[in-house]
Amino acid sequence: MGVTRYRTFEEAEQALWNFAPDAAYYEQVRAMFDLAERLRDHSFKPGLTKFRSIADKDRAVSLHDQ
Q1: How far is 29 from 61, CA to CA, in rounded Å?
Q2: Cα–Cα distance measured from residue 20 to residue 2, given in angstroms and rounded to the nearest whole number
Q3: pLDDT in tens, 1-42
Q4: How far apart are CA 38 and CA 52, in angstroms?
């Protein structure tokens, strides 16, 4: 992916506009909203959690996903 240089913030902002969205664009938007919904889940307690093993971690995550 190349680097694009802009002279002003407005030029950079206009480069983000999409006047002809296709199916892939809408799929990306849907995926973004799905990710935001999953990140909003607060059932994990804040901070770090230590596990004795990978298996213990996998069990905790699988219980959370149910």
Answers
A1: 26
A2: 22
A3: 689 999 999 999 999 998 999 999 999 999 999 998 888 766
A4: 26
